[in-house]
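Exercise 7. Predict the joint structure of the components listed below.
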Amino acid sequence: MELNKDDKILVLEDIWKRFPGVIALKGVSLNIEKGEIVGLVGENGAGKSTLLKVIYGILKPDNGKIIWKGKEVHIDNPLHAMALGIFYVPQEIVLPLNITVMEALTLGYHVKGYFNLVDKKYMMSLAKEMLSVVGLDNVDPNEKVGNLSTASRQLLLVARAIGMNAELLIYDEPTSTLGPKEAENLLNNMRRLKNRGITQIFVSHRIEEVISVADRIIVLRDGYKVAEIDNKEKKAQPEEVIKLMIARDIKEFYPKVKLSIGNEILLVKNLKTKTLNDISFSVRGGEILGIFGLLGSGIYEIPKAIIGIVPRIRGEIFMENKRVDFKSPSEAVKHGLVYIPEDRRVMGLFPLLPAKHNITISSLDIFRKGLTRLLSIINTKSEYNTVSKLIKMVNLNPPEPDRKIMYFSGGNQQKVLISRAFTRPVKVVMLSEPTVGIDVGAKVEVRKLMIELARYGCGIVLISNDVHEIYGMSDRVIVISKGRIVYETSVEDTNAEQLLLFASR
Amino acid sequence: MEKSEKSQQQSQTATAPLILIRSPELGTLIAVLGLSLIIGFVNPRFWLPSNWLTIMRWFAGFALLAMGESMVLIIGGIDLSVGSMASLSSMIFAYLIAEMSWDTWQAFIVTMVIAILVGLYHAAVVVRFSPPLPTTVPAFIVTLGSLILLRGIAIGMTKGFPIKIYDESKIAFLASSQGIALLVTIAGIITLLIQLRTVVGRYMYAIGGSLEAARVAGIPIHKARAFAFIYSSILASITGMLYAGLVASGYADIATGQELYAIASCAIAGVSLAGGEGNAISAILGALLISIVRNGIVLMGVSPYWQDVGTALILVIAVIVDLTRRTLFAKV
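Solution:
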């Protein structure tokens, strides 16, 4: 179908991008109309990020044409893209924290009064105007950026882009670090901007969000564009989109298996920290305890307080009926308590080390020859055996133990992190947001690993702000709000709506 | 399909010359060979055994200091005190032998114990303030303090006068080529073994890669970092005793400023100053390059007062190559 090119704001024709060993984009063509919201979905490694980087000028395509408002352009760098009117809202917001909102908004503006001085009054009115565009009317422009929530900082970035005459906004998984309410707020803001005629590209792993906001959904798989779904007249079905993304039928999105539940392994009594109050719970062998709470509820602090990263003010911890008092994670690991943090890039992995070293780092005491602890030689043969077994078990892709962890995709990094718990006799594993930021297929694989750990008799603590994951995987759930337990239930006696209700109290 | 095959061929031809940049050890080795050929061409005396003996004496000290330094750099720290530690050790060692008439091995052990105590003190300060700070911050400050303090003690011991060891039989082994070669070889093997094959070695790379992740993974971050600082002090003190043997005296300025050569040796050949990368082989190659440059400057008829300029040029070039490597290969 031949369309008038004038109402296309951005046209990509046959874009190819190759990296050593991989072809990330294989002849992708896109037409984006002015003022529409395009949802871009695909598994990790499907080519979404590469495509965004090509549009934003971070990467140059090997072949293909980019036509912006009817003219062919070669976007050299992000500054060039911004000059054209293309702006990028990244997953992790990079803004200086020590400046005020007003300064952040007018950064890069040449706001000059008499004698080239900064005209504060004008800057203030400008900042207020920009804030109201994104619905942040109640934010004081004199507030420091560091005091705003992640969600507000994101909107701040959007506001700045609009202030700089953005015509196309690219969102790269903006909601993955937000709670449900904040995410909804961002989506509403997208709808508002759409009414102002701003074109938007939205990348997200949360399919429901894409369906709720997008006019058109484009599905990428293995570097090809495999489908374009019209989402304007009739909303697409999530199952349908997911099926297109992964090209295989996943019925068991939550591969929950009921296991026989053993003895109590971990007991926490009256745990109190700066933000937590009176947290008590227990976990049994083979059981998955879900700890559910929204962002800011304090759920991520619970495991950190137990293993001693966050100081405890009060509280007793028992493992197999024996009182323990962990001052550092190394003591917890020795007692068979492993923690998989939510921020795998900062707190979990060693990006420079190969996958095999990342897997065995917590259990080198098992692979050592000789008696002295630190200076003993590592038995690389038995280490290698364990690693190759685990790589097969977790289905690591590519299955190369010597490849540095930074060269794996997010899902495979997570698999490496979780396989750490399989290297030694473990009694309890606490997983914080184990499936955040990874693709649908990998999510299911990670959840299966959780079940596998429980099958070994481990007690599992699953900490998540994804209510479906909590409801789909847990045996028992506790809900945390404002640092306190507000609800405790067996999963049979509740539903997702009820959990959300308690969490948002 | 055609397109993809073409591109793969292209990428292969493009990466071939980049291998040099990719492996800093190989790059340094080629620089060593290239420089040797050039210097030897200009002044054939470069290849005389007596000249190589001179180079090797320089090299032994640089290599020992650099190997110790590499341990601290790997954990993401820095040790600025190794030069002063070596100077102080030469003084203590000479004092114990010459003034107290101790046996060599007794003096050797006592000097080493003092070095261990200094390393422990560095580690204690670092561990106290990091985390929350990254390792470098307290490490820089405490070892900068020791750089001044240890040299101050060395000077204060005799008000700056050297301590002559008259009974040269006591230091005959330390001053002999065989003794030096043996010391450097053993230190090299032990350092490499620790770094590549032991539990603490693995821990050190992990800590240098990410202190926070290391803590969460249950690594004893305090012990492992203490080990690195102690090891660096021990090798520095051995260097000092070796120098004392070479010049048959203890001298408070004998290794002044050599901490910078140690750090430069590491940085040139691939020990990342950001932590988590490189090993003793890099340190040894870097030390060899610096020794040859310093020797070459004299042999090519330039005044020895220009030696530091030559060393600095090599360091800056090496660091630029290293940064190029990182920006080219780190982000894909």
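Discussion. Residues 264-350+410-503 of chain A form a domain with the Rossmann fold fold (CATH 3.40.50.300).
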